[in-house]
Amino acid sequence: MIDKLKELIAEAEAFTAQSKDEVEQFRIKYLGSKGLLKEYFAEFKNVANEQKKEFGQTINQLKKTAEDKVNALKEALENQEEDNGLYGDLSRPGEPIALGARHPISIVKNQIIDIFSRIGFNVSEGPEIEDDWHNFTALNLPEYHPARDMQDTFFVQTNPDILLRTHTSSVQVRYMEENKPPIRTISPGRVYRNEAISARSHCFFHQVEGLYIDKDVSFADLKQTLQYFTTEMFGKSKIRLRPSYFPFTEPSAEVDVYWGLETETDYKMTKGTGWLEIMGCGMVDPNVLDNCGIDSKEYSGFAFGMGIDRIALLLHQISDIRLLSENDVRFLEQFKSAL
Ligand code: PHE
User: Fold this and answer.
1) How far is the CA of 246 from the centre of ligand 1 (A)?
2) What is the pLDDT of residues 47-90, one digit of tens each?
3) How far apart are the C-alpha atoms of 303 and 247, rounded to whole Å?
4) pLDDT of the residue at 97
5) Is the peptide bond before 182 cis (omega within 30 degrees of 0)?
6) Of the residues 140, 167, 223, 249, which should be mutated to test ligand 1's pocket, given the most ligand atoms within 8 Å of the CB?
7) Which residue's C-alpha comes closest to atom 9 of ligand 1?
8) What b-and-e string marks burial along 294-328, b requiring 16 or more CB atoms within 10 Å of the CB?
9) Pocket of ligand 1 contains residue 167 by CB under 6 Å
10) What global pTM score does this model have?
11) Any known ligand binding at 250?
12) 3-state SS assignment for residue 304
């Protein structure tokens, strides 16, 4: 009988369970009110005296083994449940984390900021909802000035003094009001114009405008700065400045960069001329400096402004400006490899 008990001890020790049910059945089999232990304890009185001691020890050992086993298995199963709840199967291989992509507008904007920051320009920002003074009047565009029509404006209905900025020149006005020359700043941001939406134009787009004010700043400084920019940005150093008109600069110019006519795309992009218009620029009108509290007799400066969206379309061969604001992931995912 002692041998039988030893067998049962070995069996109990080897027992494993996958569920609480199996543990419970094991408990009932060994420790239950009609279980094995009960049976063997009942046998105790029939055991020969000289074997009583060993029998007693063995049966106690079986009891302890069974109890320990039940407790250990219960605990293990509970822990496992917790783990599953919190972390799932910890030994599973990890899931790949998909890499995001920057928006093409951000990519181009960051490139422009990077290029100008290397020659000492900082970045300034301002509100998209502007007042008339900062968007127009301070920039030498008084009320009823015909040049206000150059940029179709969204006004805030209840207050004609409040509008969605039509260019980030408004940020330059704010910057001049708050800072003394020398000033070297670029102002990236979103702007709004009441234009029909098509593949080529949208009612909102993005600009980077630049402003440089110091003593004795000349048109030559402007040209040199722009040439540095086009070389760094496009790898093209040949530019031309066509006379133009902006109310806030005098003289004013449009900047064309020579793109070349090597490929069919070059032909398409430049309409067969090889030249590509990329921005407007000029020497800051003395009226603007005075409006912003900078003495125009002491200081002069230049300003320029370009559209980020158009440059993004160009550089990434995107055929429709509307793609930039539709948030279609199939489009956005294509920029994973860009900066
Ligand atoms: N503000 C002009 C525009 O939005 C661009 C510009 C900026 C032109 C500075 C000249 C100088 O069209």
Assistant:
1) 7
2) 888 888 888 888 888 889 888 988 888 888 887 776 666 667 77
3) 12
4) 83
5) yes
6) 167
7) 304
8) bebeebbbbbbbbbbbbbbbbeeebeebebbeeee
9) yes
10) 0.72
11) yes
12) strand
